[in-house]
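Rotation project, supervised by the postdoc (A.L.). Task for the rotation student: set up a whole-complex structure prediction and record inputs and outputs verbatim in this book. Inputs entered:
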Amino acid sequence: MSVVRVDLETPESRARAIRREADEPHSQVVRFGPDKPLRLDAGVELTPFQIAYETYGELNAARSNAILICHALSGDQYVIGTHPATGKPGWWETMVGPGLPIDTDRFFVICANVPGGCMGTTGPASRDPANGEPYGLAFPVVTVRDMVRSQAMLLDHLGIDTLLCVTGGSMGGMQVLQWAASYPERVFAALPLATAARHSAQNIAFHEVGRQAIMADPDWRNGRYLIEGTNPRRGLAVARMAAHITYLSDAALHRKFGRRYQDRDAPTFSFDADFQVESYLRHQGSSFVERFDANSYLYITRAMDYFDLAADYGGTLAHAFRGSRSRFCVVSFTSDWLFPTSDARQIVHALNASGASVSFAEIESDKGHDAFLLEEPELFDITRGFIEAAARARGLPSAGS
Amino acid sequence: MNHMLNRTEKPPATWRVDHVLMAEMVKPGARVLDVGCGDGELLRLLAETKGVDGRGIEISREGVNAGVAKGLAVIQGDADIDLADYPDDAFDYVILSQTLQATRRPRWVLEQMLRIGRHVIVSFPNFGHWRIRLQLLSRGRMPITDHLNDTWYETPNIHFCTIRDFVELVREIDARMDRGFALDRWGRPVRLHAPWWFWNLFGEQGLFLLSRARHAGESDPGRLR
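Outputs recorded:
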């Protein structure tokens, strides 16, 4: 994968870069023609449909060592290695790689960009066949189930019948649960992290703040900014800043920044970023804008809002997992208030009630929701142990042999 | 990572004697819930020797980690709360090994176990053992033994009972006692056919197989009276 730094100087060049990445991504990509549309929950057939993905490690001859990683809201398929747009490392370098818990020396790891995303899977920045312009708001609303359906199409294309494990955190965890419900026979083991079986009212509310910030930016142009050569940077940055607070915890923010000043000894009696925490949030906002598309943010947050797995099964979550032979391991973090342990316990109760094989661990951490992405030795131990046991049960050779 | 694999792949040289005794009570292929499963060794024994479909609940993080790393299905949870979430008859056997005395509501826990499982296996330290009685009598201090070696202010064990106390509780909740043992300090059964006072004095632990009483008259069969 070649590293191409995009030119960030002007909104026009940024728009060109977004459109290029949407249609001609740096990743591997499968293009499905009119014979294979992505059938969306919205009642629309999305065609042509393309899915961009990365793989790591080798698929074994029995095709039994595949692990699917589902990315979160602001993630993408670049799990490890240098990101083509930012030049930064992948988002799960601590977890995935040779000898790491998700061991690329032994497993074939797949991660695909979700529909509605902006890294090469069809989304609002992709070319609308109706007029050759980026879809913008003409793009249909997608759901978590649509994401999973698209991944199943990819697996069919790759000739992989059953996944050894499907894992992911946050929205990735929602996809894991949806996988287990929609395709139980294709999921040997499921490892949902820091997630819930339905998006809470509070979380929908936070997302709405983000969407309103984007839509209030005059440069958003009713979603037509890519056509009109503008970029709603401020709106997207504010959305990211607000969301970022929800990914951390009071304790983590205090530990990192406290009330310390940024490059000054006293307040300036202005609205400059006097505090380190302000400066940090501004940086988070502006760096996000460099790699993410505002419309994608609208669509993907919407997909999470709509997620309510029990609702698809007569309101009883246990019915979603009825008869499942998959083995589950659910993980939550003590300081995660976005997807608190009570959400994880709901999943565990449903799995218990449906008779599924389930493990559950709440990990002590003050890092908030983001803990699943960070250095958490206990998470690594549990992931390693769970995947190792699944591999043994599937008859794969053990590590080191 | 290698240390973890070594731990999971090499069975220990010997299983705990009381674990083996419990495993003998379990029918092959049964569905088993081990409440307070610790590091999962009993579940592993049951999986390896009886091919059971086993699940565990464990309150300590270390225990959960160890269990998951062994490939067991272990849920971090509190028996005093979480048993309520399991459906009726979800398991063939529910096991409570050396945990009853650490629960806040032993009676409730026992009743829940009998609701969740068709059979219940319970083992607990016997506070009526002569060594404990002697310490209390001679020193006038809370007893500390090899088996119960925490000071009174640090022990997780908050509801001690004797074998006779336990038998009385079983009678009170109308459960049926199918088998019973008193075990010595090594977990071996003391004299099988002995009167209650003998077990209560010389057993370091009690180990019982219970089931729901089908009707009241059946609740107290044979020599276990």
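Student's summary: The interface with chain B takes residues 99, 327, 329, 348-349, 352-353, 355, 357-364, 378, 381-382, 384-386, 388-390, 392-393, 398-400 of chain A (CB under 8 Å).
Supervisor addendum: The first helix of chain A runs from residue 11 to 23.
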